[in-house]
Each structure stands twice: as structure tokens, then as C-alpha cells.
Amino acid sequence: MLQGTPVYDICTLSDFRQDDIMVSRFAPYLEHHKNLYAAHRHTFYHVVFFTGGAGTHNIDFEDFEVKPGQIYFMVPGQVHSWSFEGFTDGYIINFSDTFFQSLLLDTAYLERFAFFSGDVSEAVINLPAGAGEKIGNLFEEIIKEWESSPKQTTDLMRVLMLQVFILVNRFKGANPKGPASYNQTLLKNFRKLIEQQYKKLRLPKDYAALLYITPNHLNAVCKDLLGKQAGELIRNRALLEAKRLLTNPELTITEIAMELNFGDNSYFTKFFKKTEGITPEEFRKNILTHNHHD
Predict the structure, then answer these.
(1) The pTM is what?
(2) For residue range 285-294, what is the model confidence (pLDDT) as tens digits?
(3) What is the CATH number of the domain that holds 260?
(4) What does 34-58 look like in DSSP terms, one character per residue?
(5) Where is each HTH araC/xylS-type domain found (predicted)?
């Protein structure tokens, strides 16, 4: 399997040998890992809360303005980079996809939070002043636990982190009442299937068959809940992976086209340009130039 950008696991970003979690204040973390300004991706969940600073950060090729009181959430595999202006501080937590499994019976618990869906539009949240103070206090408690070493400190960090997630969810106004509807569950399962099959299956009818519904029903659900056609979701996932792979200058366009099952360069280039308005080569040049200047 081809890799696009540099990929980091928790061990490579920590002076401590603890594979499941890493906690730090943001400024010293940034000072210690200057290589992380350029585009890279992680094998873990990544949460950053800014208490000061300016500039931009980019998640899966979308730019966001850095602001105090802002918190962002990333899932394993997403690509991001930073471009800060002046001194930037806050808190950072990196944790593995198995970190909560020993505490929670529901292994899919994090999927309840839209900001852990991998949808970039849900990932960056600007908190009001009062909320930012509460979240900051919780991060301080997590830092204290991280820097101490009594028994059960990891479990207490888990509990404090869950408080952060639940409170941020409330501040967003995302407090759904009752269980998800049938169509919401259907959409969630469709998105999971896309994540697993987007390199092989490109047609809505293929996914509809796996979901035991008609293609028309699948399209109606996507249109109703997202305002998009089912095919658009499939194409967008393939396009995102193409962008991620294009950030690695050592991969040829042919290798990327083959990895994504496009068959040949011309088909891949046509697909890419139709959506992005530029060729894969032009996109790569823009990204690499951006990284170089940063």
C-alpha cells in the first residue's frame, strides 16, 4: 500500500515509551517537532486546543484560521500542516484508536461525536469564552495527571478526556435526543463501506447492494441528510486519497493511479481535473511549493 505524506505514530512524537497516549502543552511540543509544520499524517487521534496564537492550519487540504479558544479534532489517516504567526500555545493530546477500549464497553463510542467523523467541516470548533475556560481547566487537569505517576492515572485521563469531548459536543449544540433514525444509521453504514471499499467500488449500485437497498433509496437518503448524491460521496473519498498520495513527491502519477484502481494515467487525470480544475501534477506542485515556503 502506498503512503502519501510522512506518517507518525505516538512513539516517534514522545520522549516517553507509552504507545497509547501522549499529552503536552503545545508550544514545547511545536518547538520539539519543527518537522511537523509540513504536511504529514498520524496513525492516531489528534486533539489540539489553542489558548493563544495566530496563523493557519490545514486539515485534508482545507485551511482554518488559528484562534485562541479553538479546538480541533483529527482521526487517524488525515493529512494536516501548520503555518503559525508569532508565539502559539495551548494543549495537545495524541491517543491511539484502542485507548478507550479497556474503559468503555462500546468500542465505537467516539463515533457518537461528529468531530471524530473525519468530516473536516465538523473538526474545527471555536468555543465561546466561558466554554474555552472550562475546557482549558480540564486540559490542565489532564496535564497534571500526565506529569504525575500515581496508580490509575491513565483511567483518570480517559475520564477527563471524555468530559472534554462531551462538553465540546454540548457547546456545539450537538445533543441529539433519542437514537439515530433508520436513515441516519444507513448513511453511517454507507460511509463506513466507502472507507473500506472506495478503491474497488465506485458505483452507488454496488454499495446499495451491500446495504440491501435500492440505488434510488441510497441516493434519496444522501440527498435528504447531506444534500449530495451518493456518487459524490464515493468520488470525494477517492479524490481525497489521491490528494494525500500526491503530497509524496517520490510517488509517480502512474503509481497513484494504480493504487486507486484507475487503470491508467489519462483516466485518473481526467477524474482529478474534472473535480479540482487542475491536473494532479499541478496540484502536487502547488502543495510542495506551499510546504517549502512554510
Answers:
(1) 0.81
(2) 988 776 655 5
(3) 1.10.10.60
(4) GGGGSSEEESSEEEEEEEEEEEEEE
(5) 188-286
